[in-house]
Amino acid sequence: MEEIDRRIVTLLARDGRMSFTDLARETGLSVSAVHQRVRRLEKRGVVRGYAAIIDHDAVGLPLTAFVSIKPIDPAAPDDAPERLAHLAAIEACHSVAGDESYILKVRVASPAALEDLLQQIRASANVSTRTTVVLSTPYEHRAPNVDPDGADPSGEPDGPA
């Protein structure tokens, strides 16, 4: 990937609503050149979409947890993601190495709702669970560092001085 495309990706990851005019100003390209590059990045699947970042507390889902799942029968088909897809409280499903097969990120309204969800997960996928409840989230949704040199797109080096 070209350096200018890396810069565009980093800027869009930080603010998906950044206008083509602002992207052009930040990259030194014309608006039409930025537009072309963004469309090319979308077509190649580098930029897969744009999303709103929701305040989960404000919408009544203040409890976040990570649920590690492991099949009860190791010989059973590895189809847990498909069996759990109908559960809207599961925000993300990650296939992992280690004792567990998957780690699920879930968001619910209360401890009782978490307990209900865990029962649904166990019944739907025939798995055992291990749950870690999140107490606070100092940061989330950080933009990836796609610069091969590790420099921040603002030109500042990463990390403490």
UniProtKB/TrEMBL annotation:
Region (Disordered): 136-161
Highest taxon above the source species: Bacteria
Keyword presence, DNA-binding: yes
Record key words, sorted: DNA-binding, Transcription, Transcription regulation
Pfam families in alphabetical order: AsnC_trans_reg, HTH_24
Domain HTH asnC-type span(s) in chain numbering: 1-62
InterPro entries xref list: ArsR-like_HTH (IPR011991), AsnC-type_HTH_dom (IPR000485), Dimeric_a/b-barrel (IPR011008), Tscrpt_reg_AsnC-like (IPR019888), Tscrpt_reg_AsnC/Lrp_C (IPR019887), Tscrpt_reg_HTH_AsnC-type_CS (IPR019885), WH-like_DNA-bd_sf (IPR036388), WH_DNA-bd_sf (IPR036390)
Full protein name: Lrp/AsnC family transcriptional regulator
High-level lineage: Bacteria, Bacillati, Actinomycetota, Actinomycetes, Streptosporangiales
